[in-house]
Amino acid sequence: MGLFWSLKPENPLSRLLKKDVMNSPFQIQLKLSELQPPLKNAHSVPKASLTLERWYVAPGVTRILIKEGRLRGALFVPPGEGKFPGVIDLFGGIGGLIEFRASLLASHGFVTLALAYHSYEDLPFVLEKVDLEYFEEAANLLLRHPKVLGPGIGIISICRGAEIGLSLAIHLKQVTATVLINGPNFIIDVPHIYRDKIIKPTPFSLHLQSNDVFGFAEFYQVYAETGCKDSRYFLPIEKAQGHFLFIVGEDDKNINSKLHAEQAKEQLRRHGKNNWTLLSYPGAGHLIEPPYTPLCRASKLNSLTTAIHWGGEVIPHAAAQEHSWQEIQKFLRKHLVPVRTSQL
């Protein structure tokens, strides 16, 4: 699979994302050529070539577009009879409706809701607040589906999505298993609102932003004077009733995710809880995605004028993606599928 995870973008600010997961695969051309001496024609006719198709959805998985009340998303349902564990999939600042991870999880036996919450259709383009009741409505919609096992659901989340995922795990009893990929343990820059409660964002110091040698922005130090050391800003993770899987890329240049996961782990430990697992990957960057996805070192977001350096080294990042994907599925099954004991 190194032919896939080692791919490099022609435009260094490109991120390989599958948008239409149902109707078309990625088509990847492989060509086998003889190694040419430096002075000979490097564009000789290949000895052999073929086109591989990489699908992001298994046969029989169905996609249901969700437009119910204010909810916007896409629900992916595995084939077959019986009930399946339910999961909500949350991405971060990229916005829009991102479906490729949800379709892959459904292909492995999870009813998965790819949930949009900004920059999509009639949702706010600029996120000014996080209304947790919106996500609560999504959790209840998922639990009402006849193929969802219940009584709890899982969340898989990254970056700002992980910030929201942590907040949901604290406030919603429906959430029993939460995967947090490179997220903070505090509120970043817009308030969270739940009923009559407002959780204010953490102050940051923009002068602590740095740039790499290519001029790409690095934000992992901007909370060094606040959220990185002042427990007043930490979310009360100990109030969560479910379980957590922290996934950390130690070369994350966007968020100091290793520190934040360690802080959250210690907070749980101080309150006598052991409802967490921490997977920390040296050399992995911020965008830990499903296996064999090429590393995206830097890209732009619609909300920012500058490109962001996400970090990561090609080989260890690929290894982290492959290992964490299996661990995510094990974790979700362990905490969402009840253990049946024999009555004999």
Automatic annotation (TrEMBL):
Domain BAAT/Acyl-CoA thioester hydrolase C-terminal stretches: 130-337
UniProt-recorded Gene Ontology molecular function terms: fatty acyl-CoA hydrolase activity
Alphabetical GO biological process terms: acyl-CoA metabolic process; fatty acid metabolic process
This protein's GO CC annotations: peroxisome
Keywords annotated in UniProt: Fatty acid metabolism, Lipid metabolism
InterPro entries named in the record: AB_hydrolase_fold (IPR029058), Acyl-CoA_thioEstase_long-chain (IPR016662), BAAT_C (IPR014940), Thio_Ohase/aa_AcTrfase (IPR006862), Thio_Ohase/BAAT_N (IPR042490)
Catalytic residues (UniProt): 159 (charge relay system), 252 (charge relay system), 286 (charge relay system)
A Pfam family recorded for this sequence: Bile_Hydr_Trans
Domain Acyl-CoA thioester hydrolase/bile acid-CoA amino acid N-acetyltransferase: start-end pairs: 1-68
Transmembrane intervals: none
Stated family: Belongs to the C/M/P thioester hydrolase family.
Protein name per Swiss-Prot or TrEMBL: Bile acid-CoA:amino acid N-acyltransferase-like isoform X2
Organism whose genome encodes this protein: Dipodomys ordii (Ord's kangaroo rat)
Taxonomic lineage: Eukaryota, Metazoa, Chordata, Craniata, Vertebrata
